[in-house]
Each structure stands twice: as structure tokens, then as C-alpha cells.
Fold each of these.
Amino acid sequence: MKLEDDKPILAISEDDAQKGKCTECLACELECEFHGNKGVYVDLPIPGLKEYLQERETSQTR
């Protein structure tokens, strides 16, 4: 992250950020959560996670 016109912006390209190369966004989310204003939410999709969790839940209920 960097400041431009007193506003935070990404210090890397949007493409790199979408590929998960920006850990600053996660740090920003945690900092916002810590200070109580919850101004940012980061969604990091993990391919196959949903299917894994469904399979795990099914196997635990047997």
C-alpha cells in the first residue's frame, strides 16, 4: 500500500493483487479489525476449498 493524495492505494498492479501477491491487503484488514472500524474486507478464494470442506463434513458425519 502507498498513499496517493492522502488515500491508500495498492503499491502493485491489480493483476498481481488478484494473484495473491499482496499481503498488505490482509495486514490492512487485520489492522482495521484490531482498531474496530472494519473498513476493509479481504476475500481470498482458494480453488478446491469448498469441495474439500464439503467432503470433510460428509466423511465426519458417517
Amino acid sequence: MSSALSLPLALFHCKISVLRIPQALVTRVNGLPCKDPATVQAEDFFFSGLHVPGNTTNPFGAALTPVTVTQVPGLNTLGLSIARLDFAPGGFIPPHTHPRATEIVAVLEGSLEVGFVTTNPGYKHFNKVLEKGDVFVVPLGLVHYQRNVGTGNTVAIAALNGQNAGIIAVASAVFGADPAINSDYLAKSFLLDKKTVEELQAKF
């Protein structure tokens, strides 16, 4: 049996990993090609840096340190990623969704409110304030948010069951679309006047 089979198929062309095929024919998963087994090394499974605080000097007062298939090629096709979340006092991550993953958040330090909104009908809001050691789950695709409700810095770890979960920031997607969504339509949709919509679009 080829020694290549002892390595995770995630790095190779699935099912036919031992075959040498043209790069142009390599199956793509989330936009990434599987790696030639001859080039696999330990670094493909390794990341260092989650112990380093992220830079929260931005308008949101928050930072994300991702460990996805982009940072660790060995995650390719394995359906897993992780991230460090840092929040300054008052810091937050705006409402967003992950179209390709469920998220589980564990707080390491501080106090973090995490909440999500269910689908229609109802749009029910579920939220909890998490302290050190607490965990909260956000189901796949639902609009959710995180915000630091403590007086000091907050640190959390988020794990997702996708190698590249994707992120859609709700406000940015609606008011910052390129090209822009028609402002008259948005005004009617959100029961706003056109001037307000245009002001919002200018911010994004």
C-alpha cells in the first residue's frame, strides 16, 4: 500500500490520492486545490499564534485571529476551523452570519454576550452573557453577534465545523454591496427615507 494513504486524504485529491493528475484537474473544495502528497510537510498541519492578543484598536474594538484552511492547509476537506476573538472594553462584532458552519464559542477571560436570531416565523432572539469557562452554540447560517459586556478585555475561542465558514456582515452586505443596491428599494424595504439610506451606504 502506498505510504501516501497514511496521510489524511484532506491534502490530496479525494478517493484517488495516489494518482498523479494534472493540477488543472485537481478537485477544488471551497476554492482550494488538494495538495500533492509529495509536497506535504508537518507545517501543513501547524499554526502558532493563538496565544497572541489581537489588535483591537479599530472602530469595533475587536480582533479576530483565524485558523482556517488558509492558515493550515491540512484542514482541507476536514470541516473544521478555529479562531481567537479579542474584545476591548465595549468591543463588539457586528451582526453577521456564517453560511457554511455552526459556531461554538468558549470564553477564556472576561464577559461576553453572545446572541443569535432564529429564522422566520418568529425571529426569536436567544442570548447569554458568558463568563470564563462558559460555552454557547450558534446554529449554522443564523444572524448572530458578540459584544464585551465586562469592564476589562475579553478573550474567547470560536470553533466552527467548516474549513472556511465564510462571513456575511449584515450591514456591510446590504449597505456596502458593490455595485450598490438601489437606494429607493432599500428605503422601502427598511421603512426609511432615501436620504437616510444613502447616508448609510456612504458609511459602508
